[in-house]
Amino acid sequence: MSTRTAADLVTTFPFPFPQDTYRYSTNVEPAGRPVETPAGQWGSSMLAVDSEYHHELNERAEILQRDPSRLQVLDHMRPAAWDAMLTLMQELALAYPQDFSLTRNADGTFTWINHLLGWHQQFTWGDESSLPTEPMAYIGAQVQEDIALLDQRGSELFVDAGVITFAADWSFGFDVGMSFMEIHGPVPRVHDLGVIARAQTFITRLQVGAPYRRTNWSLTIGRRLDVATEVYDRWGPDRGWIQTVDDTTFGDAVHLRVEVQHLVRLPQTGAVMFLIRTCMLPLSELARIEPWRARTHAVLQELPEDMADYKGFLSYRDRAVAWLDRQAPAD
Ligand code: HEM
Hints:
The protein has helices at about 5-10, 55-65, 80-95, 135-140, 170-175, 180-185, 190-195, 195-205, 230-235, 240, 245-255, 285, 290-300, 305-310, 315-325, and strands spanning about 30, 35, 40, 70-75, 100-105, 110-115, 120-125, 145-155, 155-165, 210-220, 255-265, 270-280. By secondary structure, it is α+β, with helices and mostly antiparallel strands. The protein has one domain (about 5-325). A hairpin with a 2-residue loop joins strand 8 (about 145-155) and strand 9. The protein is globular. The two termini are about 20 Å apart. The structure holds protoporphyrin IX containing FE. Protoporphyrin IX containing FE binds near residues 184, 186, 190, 202 and 216. InterPro entries: HODM_asu-like. Pfam families: HODM_asu-like. This is DUF3445 domain-containing protein.
């Protein structure tokens, strides 16, 4: 087996399976509590900066240049974008004080410093001319997380702004402006189970200062972050290629792809911020941690066909199960 994954990506990997079986649920828990894993720990802060920081932000910049539809702020969400930017700056400064700082000056302006990028900016809340780009673009260039902003109208939520460059087979450009229920239309099972209606009710009751989080997961081929529906022609063929490779390549190429998602009520506007952080670990690395290997094997083997199909790995699920089985330690 080869090792190409930086150590911190293993020790902070948010392994998503609490049990040997996996079903959809409204799996939310309060944010900020660190989770111990057999490899290390994750989850002590809402935003995580790791060894992929520069690489992922460069990738986001390239994607946005190629396709500006991945960043959209509907007009009524402009104040929410400021709210999101300031909230994220505060979070970064709190979690990583050596790398980021935010100061409120006596004249009411703010000074923001990002040491990792060498950025130093004085700005006035609400004044776009005081930033080099609009607030969503400015903060999107400094956090590894994708960001969606939801407007609450009565008991319904609408995804009306965001910068989403790492969508796992969905299209932000297509979904922007849609309701929470419409967006989840393609997901199997969840509507009959009431998962999405319950999730919406839960989100509409979110309080300022009490963020929640959940995880979601899939399998993906390679470390490609941009697997949006509109660029299917770039990554879809990998699903055919993976059938043809040898076992070593298979273990290095197939990744467990986990999203750590945070739900945050923004303090100034009351909009809801949804953060999606994508973490990927190749099966070859995951298999070195025996409890992870055994659990992933069990979950994949048992997962109902419609869920594996929706998640896009039905065609290589059996091979992943067999591959993980062969890595089991000898008795
Ligand atoms: C997909 C649940 C919040 C956007 C999904 C899936 C589930 C789910 C079960 C299927 C995932 C898979 O099998 O890989 C939930 C729950 C939430 C929540 C329980 C909150 C407690 C949100 C929010 C957004 C969102 C706030 C806003 C952008 C999406 C999208 C998809 C998705 C775009 C992909 C749909 C597609 O195939 O086009 N969600 N979700 N979700 N969710 Fe959520």
